[in-house]
Write a structure and sequence with these properties.
six-stranded mixed beta sheet, 23% helix, 6 helices, tt1808, chain A, 14 strands, disordered N terminus, alpha+beta, 196 residues
């Protein structure tokens, strides 16, 4: 995440303020963080996952969203922009600015955000009762890590090396490894300043 802006505000003030901003911001406990652009590979991988999920879920009760939709994590007093998320919650259909009840969240890692995605952001996501799976994709190595909530409310890690398929039980989809990295072969990642 980029450095926090000087403004300190509550969630409602943030929502009103951000609608007037030219760029996206994440919000965590009163602090606002500007987000930068992502690399070609990052965007391509997120797009591949979004496309597979959108096609699979078309016509059903679940909706798939890509990077421009906010996710509110009320328990962490935060708003994030996941790379991809799926919600099947009827109340989310009526929320225009953000969603609150995803079953699946996907983050494509970048050098500047990996520690946050694995640490504080994942800790916040775990506060979402609806969330069943958290998928992390590493463009550099091609590794894919799936965290799944078990019946005892523990998060279990399932690792996948390329080109292994990933079984997304939350949405009943087997995501082929080759489709994740189509037109975005794994390799060293060149950092874009303030990548999201």
């Amino acid at each position: 995440m980029a450095n926090p802006q000087s403004a300190h505000m509550d969630a409602e003030a943030f929502l009103a303020w951000e609608t007037e901003q030219p760029e996206k911001h994440q919000f965590v406990a009163g602090e606002v963080f500007a987000m930068g652009g992502a690399s070609d590979r990052h965007v391509t991988i997120a797009g591949n996952v979004f496309s597979a999920l959108r096609e699979h879920l078309r016509g059903g009760p679940c909706r798939t969203f890509i990077a421009d939709m906010k996710l509110r994590v009320e328990g962490a007093d935060a708003f994030f922009y996941p790379d991809v998320m799926v919600t099947c919650d009827s109340a989310d259909r009526g929320r225009e600015q953000y969603k609150e009840a995803p079953v699946l969240v996907v983050e494509v890692l970048s050098p500047s955000t990996e520690a946050f995605d694995r640490g504080a952001k994942f800790a916040a996501y775990r506060a979402l009762d609806s969330l069943q799976e958290y998928l992390l994709i590493d463009p550099a190595s091609g590794a894919v890590e799936l965290y799944r909530r078990d019946p005892e409310n523990h998060w279990v890690l399932y690792t996948h090396a390329p080109p292994d398929a990933v079984d997304l039980r939350s949405v009943s989809l087997t995501l082929e490894g080759a489709s994740i990295f189509e037109d975005a072969a794994p390799g060293p990642e060149h950092e874009t300043p303030a990548e999201a």
